[in-house]
Design brief:
Keywords: Lyase, Metal-binding, Zinc. The chain is an alpha+beta fold and 160 residues long. The chain has a single domain, classed as glutathione-dependent formaldehyde- activating enzyme (gfa), CATH 3.90.1590. It has 3 helices and 11 strands, in the order H-E-E-E-H-E-E-E-E-E-E-E-E-H. The longest helix has 8 residues. The N terminus is likely disordered. It binds zinc ion (ZN) (2 copies). The site of one zinc ion (ZN) has 9 residues, from loops. The site of one zinc ion (ZN) has 6 residues, from helix 2.
Length: 160
């Protein structure tokens, strides 16, 4: 646990890079405004990923440089927001999403980072719908649902 606490956030500082599954899409994120990565256990993420949760990191979209052919998936969220998720047109790996309600920001799918195996997730949202077999480590910060404003995001997840 001390190990995790010490490293928290360090793995997402500075310039970051990543790619889709097949490598046709590559990106870099220059150093800039970003929040710490978190896991979202909501039902939408489970459906969208076909998995138990998704790993996101909020960043300023102007910091991203991305190459390769992208396609997009659209979703009108029950909250009223409209979500567009971008990924590789060839292998369909998803890279990042934007939400019409959160101008200037985007949400990275952290598993696409070149250093994704170094990630040390400390924050979990929508634990109300977390699959029961997933145990969270001691000291994990959890929220039953999710932050409702930019300020709440910054306060809960924290700046990386
Ligand atoms: Zn690809
Ligand atoms: Zn979610």
């Amino acid at each position: 646990m001390a190990h995790g606490a010490k490293r928290s956030g360090q793995e997402v500082k500075g310039e970051l890079s990543g790619q889709c599954l097949c490598g046709a899409v590559r990106y870099t994120l220059r150093e800039g405004f970003r929040l710490k990565p978190y896991a979202c256990h909501c039902g939408n993420c489970q459906s969208r990923t076909g998995s138990a949760f998704s790993e996101h990191m909020l960043f300023a979209i102007s910091d991203m440089n991305i190459s390769g052919e992208l396609d997009a998936g659209e979703y009108d969220m029950p909250s009223g927001g409209h979500s567009t998720i971008y990924g590789c047109a060839k292998c369909k790996a998803r890279i990042y999403a934007v939400n019409a309600n959160r101008e200037g920001m985007a949400s990275l799918r952290c598993g696409t980072l070149d250093n994704s195996t170094d990630l040390d997730i400390q924050h979990h949202i929508w634990v109300a719908s977390k699959q029961p077999w997933i145990g969270l480590h001691e000291g994990a910060k959890t929220m039953e649902q999710q932050p409702r404003s930019h300020q709440e995001w910054v306060e809960f997840v924290g700046i990386a």
